[in-house]
């Protein structure tokens, strides 16, 4: 039991004069949290990581993610990998619909990939809405009277809606989406994606230029110059294809993880922007970015869940063909991604921003300054941007832990519990279980947790003090 008399007095000073002071006897029971000894999260060994990197052709992908083609465009290094992840999803749709195996679950694959594409479009649209300067983005104002359309090999469509309004919709020449729209097997899903782009990009200063209707006649992003679809799809074959595996799941595994790694890189860029904006005290935009990061963690979970649709026999055969076997906790497939380990650490390190957000310093003597400042912030509601930011930071924590909890279950379902962790009971939690340590770790924000616990106890005490039942007894 912890005596909170001092905090009680501080809260009482903020309460209306008619509200009675909290009794000095009010005590708060702090929930007992099981002690888990955490080891430092680390990626797999260099040899294991190199094999993973080689399998996915990550060095070549990274060149596409990090190439600076438009130096004045601030969002290039963030939006480019996001758009490339979407473009790779278009290729994934083509792979799934070209699968000739009679036992493949095409219906669910199609539904999942459609949802995945639309969730990516939602995030991309939110990123585009946040453009500080529309003029720096590589767009073409196709509604300008000086615009000239090519007579040959042009995919631009001109619509005259009225005498005063002419709309030009520019379509990418290299993206796979327009081709999917022309293929009978995929035309329905392609058109749904196009309409989703139209709806999601309504508030954006430009549209993507992927064949969406563009009813508002906005300028189109120079998609081919930004995304480089031809170069991206040149990486569609894995080096393992030379092994003649004759296993179609190799393409699905390879493409799934290319999309995953692309969005991991986009999340890393987003984390960098969050840190910069908090340091500059641009809290409103930092809040938006934090909620976006929570969405990208959910997206990573959704991408990983695609493994559920892989054929059990084919995927286990592929596992042995590729010699994928974890001899240590750090060699689980997720820990072979240095990018994933890095964004996990960066997401956790956001906890160090809390003192700056609350304008307090950590007391070296252990006095709960941060907790007191959080209580005051929650009660007064004066700096609501700070409240929103703290809420978003805790939402990120929840999304991170949800990802690793889901991944632990995914391993068991896809490859079996014994395969997932040698011959030890995988579902048991012990000090060597790196995945369980992540999602069972105590909160990243103990001061915020303590502040909310105290406020909850305070209002519970006040409710009991003035409840009708208590008055009737009196």
From TrEMBL:
Lineage start: Eukaryota, Viridiplantae, Streptophyta, Embryophyta, Tracheophyta
InterPro entries noted in UniProt: Hs1pro-1_C, HSPRO1/HSPRO2, HSPRO1_N, Trp/Indoleamine_2_3_dOase-like
Sequence ranges assigned to domain Nematode resistance protein-like HSPRO1 N-terminal in this UniProt record: 1-198
Biased composition (Polar residues): 10-23
Superkingdom of origin: Eukaryota
A single BP term in Gene Ontology: L-tryptophan catabolic process to kynurenine
Region annotation (Disordered) ranges: 1-23
UniProt domain Hs1pro-1 C-terminal: residue ranges: 201-461
Protein name: Nematode resistance protein-like HSPRO2
